Amino acid sequence: MDNQLHCHRARGAVHYETELVIKMGRDFEPEMQVDDLVDEMAIGLDLTLRDVQQKLKENGHPWLLAKGFPQSAIISDFFFVSRSGAVQRKNIFSPA
Fold it and tell me: How far is it, in rounded angstroms, from Cα 19 to Cα 4?
C-alpha cells in the first residue's frame, strides 16, 4: 500500500478541508437520536485544485476537474465512538 500523498502542484495551488465522515447504520425513523443512526466515523481529507477551480468558475463551468482527481478525497479507516466519547481504535491513521 502506498501511504504517500501525491499533490498535483503542477496544476496550481492545492487547498484542503478536513471532514468528519459518518457511516449511517440504518434508515432514519421519526424520534431517533443521532446515536441510533451513526455506526462509525472516519476522518476525510477533501483536496481542491484551487487555481483550476477559479478558472472553471470564471467561465461558468462545473468544478468537477478541480475536485475529482486521483487522491482528491482521502479517508481514514472507520472507527467507533461510544456515547461516552471513547474511541474504539487507538490510532485511526495507521494503515490496516
Answer: 19
Contact 77, 87 (CB under 8 A): no
Instruction: State the pTM of this model.
Output: 0.66
Place of cell 472553471: 56
Cell 484542503 belongs to 16
**37: pLDDT strictly greater than 70:** yes
Per the model's pLDDT, the better-predicted residue between 29 and 95 turns out to be: 29
At 17, the pLDDT band (50, 70, 90 cuts) reads very high
CA distance 96 to 79: 12
Task: Say how far apart CA 68 and CA 35 lie, in whole Å.
Answer: 32
The β-bridge partners of 87 are 81
Residue 24 near residue 32, CB atoms below 8 Å: no
Rounded to whole angstroms, the Cα distance separating 2 from 70 reads: 13
CA 15-57-53 angle, to 5 degrees, is: 25
Residue type, 9: R
